[in-house]
Amino acid sequence: MTGFDQAELKLLTDLIQERFGLMFNGIRMEILESRLRPRLRELRLTTLRDYYHYLRFHPDREAEFARLPAMVTNNETYFFRETHQFDLLIHHVIPERRALLRDRPLRLLSAGCSSGEEPYSLSIALHNAGLPLAGMSWEIDACDLNPERIARAHEALYAESSLRACDAEARRRYFTQEAGGFRLKQKYREKVRCFPSNLLAPNGALGWAIYDAILCRNLLIYFSEDAFAAAIGLFARSLAPGGYLFLGHSESLLDRKTSFAPAMLGGAVVYRKLEAA
After folding, report:
1. Do 237 and 137 fall within a single domain?
2. Nearest one of 171, 192, 191, 170 to 182, comparing CA atoms
3. What is the DSSP string of 178-237?
4. Is residue 193 a part of any domain in this protein?
5. Where are the alpha helices (DSSP H) in the chain?
6. Residue-range definition of the domain harbouring residue 248
7. CA–CA separation, 247 vs 175, rounded Å?
8. CB neighbour class for 3 (10 Å; exposed up to 12, middle 13-18, buried from 19)
9. Which of 93, 107, 244, 273 could make an SS bond with 209 (beta carbons 3.0 to 4.6 A apart)?
């Protein structure tokens, strides 16, 4: 199989966008095409139109949709990536909400968590900040579109590439080296719940709580305009009034009408849910 029919490719990518909100252009389109070819061979399908019809009408279409995210997402991540936002959370958000946290845990959500490196890094940061010694507790929920990545998060066994920002002391302190890689110690896995979730699912709910802060970093850049707006609306419904939304450095709400207002914390722009929203 050489090149795909462009009309059939658009038919399929429109379906993926409708289901998951993901857009494809440039190198992402090349990645998608390279991953579709072996899948068509496995299913003994000849054209993308055949695969489109499979997704629309085959009795196993939901199972195929469940495995599709693993084919179309990149999931590039590693421990302690962009930790300056963790510092903002610890030094600005938590002190601001300390009175609210006397009788309940701090509740955080990592949206688009991939195989768990971000929420587990956040757990380590909260431990290192001394929250347990201060009598504060927390709950971290973490979700991702790809159920295979969530399974890896539950296993918490990581390859060398996931520890690229860890020095020898960090590896010794936070991980146990095994034959298959580096397993995160149980202490840092507690209070972290990882689950599969599609941010565009019709039920419009996330996790089990109303959150004090949500981290969704370097995910929305792949969303269509409608999907971007829907995700921001979902985050607004899932945050407590005055709660914070942390986005990636390439993502912004500054030119959008939302339930959030930009706020400067430690010299960085984050987004705070309006009290009246």
Report:
1. yes
2. 171
3. ETTEEEEPHHHHTTEEEEE--TT-TT---TTS-EEEEEE-SSGGGB-HHHHHHHHHHHHH
4. yes
5. 6-20, 27-43, 48-57, 61-72, 84-88, 94-96, 117-128, 147-155, 168-174, 186-189, 225-238
6. 84-273
7. 28
8. exposed
9. 107
Contact 56, 112 (CB under 8 A): no
Q: Is residue 193 a contact partner of residue 142, using CB atoms and an 8 Å limit?
A: yes
Residue showing tokens 């010694």 = 133
Number of domains present in the structure of the chain: 2
Token duo for residue 21: 């909100």
Which is higher by pLDDT, 275 or 4? 4
The count of residues in the chain is 277
Distances 25 to 69, 154, 161 between C-alpha atoms, Å: 16, 32, 26
Which pLDDT belongs to residue 204?
59
Spatial CB neighbours of 12, under 8 Å, sequence gap ≥ 6 = 36, 48, 51, 52, 55
Indicate whether 129 and 101 sit together in one domain.
yes
Token couple for 150: 């969530």
Placement of tokens 């299913």 in the chain: 43
Mean pLDDT of the chain: 91
- Which pLDDT belongs to residue 31? 81
